[in-house]
Structure formats: structure tokens, C-alpha cells
Amino acid sequence: MPASRFVDALNEQIAREFAASQQYVAIAVHYDAETLPRLAAFFYRQAVEERNHAMIMVQYLLDAGATPRIIGIDAPQSDFADAVAPVALALEQERRVSEQIGRLASIAREEGDYSSEQFVQWFIKEQVEEVATMSGLLHVVDRSRDNMMLAEDYLVREHPGDEGDEPGAPRAAGGAL
Fold it and tell me: Are 2 and 28 in contact (CB under 8 A)?
């Protein structure tokens, strides 16, 4: 059984992952409304990925004999000043999640909860990739602010679509939904 302090922190993180998913849906809808389909598709995929991260955490708690709690979340930001602001928000969100995941690892280590510490390692690696992806996208969108079709072209080249399941990811509750 995971340490109770870790279970409480992971339940809070589950809510944050669902909130991140909702934020990405709001960003995707914003880009859809602006007729930027590649940016919209990118963020719709990100929303599913964040939802799946929450479900991986739920499954870990279930497998470990702990009780997952699904709590309510605040509404995401849905109004943006320009085409760059949503990606800047996404990068800020990914950096914040990286810190939160690091805190989870610290709690597991402090509690001597080695199974939970090992579980969190995949998320640490994932967050390095997420921050790098959002940082690169922010640079492209910022340079393309006067012609967002350049950002759309970048996504076609560099992020052509959903590659499917995340390699090495732990199993998510609910299976491949």
C-alpha cells in the first residue's frame, strides 16, 4: 500500500491532470474557432493525453489497494488575447506540472515508498518531453504570429498526428478508451 501522504498528493495530482485536460480542450476550441485546425488537433490530442495521465494515476492507486478520489475542478481559461497566449499558457502549465510531479517523487522518497517513487519516474521523463514540445511550439507560434499558417505548416511537418499509446506508459484505468 502506498504511503497515505503520497496517496493524498496523487489524488490532488489526478484533479490537476483532469484540469490540464480541460484547459487543453479550451485551447483546442479556441484554435478551432480561429480556423487553425492543426493547432486545434494538436491540443485536442494533448487533452486526451492529460486525461490518460489522470487515468494512469487512478489505475496505480487501484492496483496498489488505495482509494482514488475524483474531485471537481475549476473552469479553464477560454479567452485569449492573441494566438500566442494559449501556447504560452500551455507551457506555463507543463512547467507547473513538472514541479508537481517532482514533489510527488520527493514525497514518495521521504516516505520510503519505493513503488510509488518508481511509478512517478515515467511521469518525470514525460514532463521533460512535454516542456520541450511546448517550448518549441511557443517559439514557432511567436515567430508566426503575423501568419499563423506557418505554425500550421510546422505542425503538419513536425507533429503529423496521433502516434497512439505513449511508449512505456503504465496502464490507464478503463483501458484504451
Answer: no
Residue 46 lies in a domain: yes
Q: How many domains does the chain have?
A: 1
Residue 134 lies in a domain: yes
Inside any domain, residue 166: no
pTM summary value: 0.90
> What CATH number did the domain enclosing 70 receive?
1.20.1260.10
Place of cell 511537418: 157
In a domain, 113, yes or no: yes
For residue 146, give the DSSP letter.
T
Q: pLDDT (tens digit, 9 = 90+) per residue, 97-154?
A: 999 999 999 999 999 999 999 999 999 999 999 999 999 999 999 999 999 999 999 9
Residue 170 class from Cβ within 10 Å (0-12 exposed, 13-18 middle, 19+ buried)?
middle
Report the C-alpha gap between 15 and 22 in whole angstroms.
11
Nearest in space to 173 (alpha carbons), one of 68, 66, 58: 58
* Residue 149 near residue 31 (C-beta atoms within 8 A): no
Nearest to 31 by CA among 74, 89, 73: 89
Query: What type of residue is 19?
Result: A
Domain containing 110: what range? Answer: 4-158
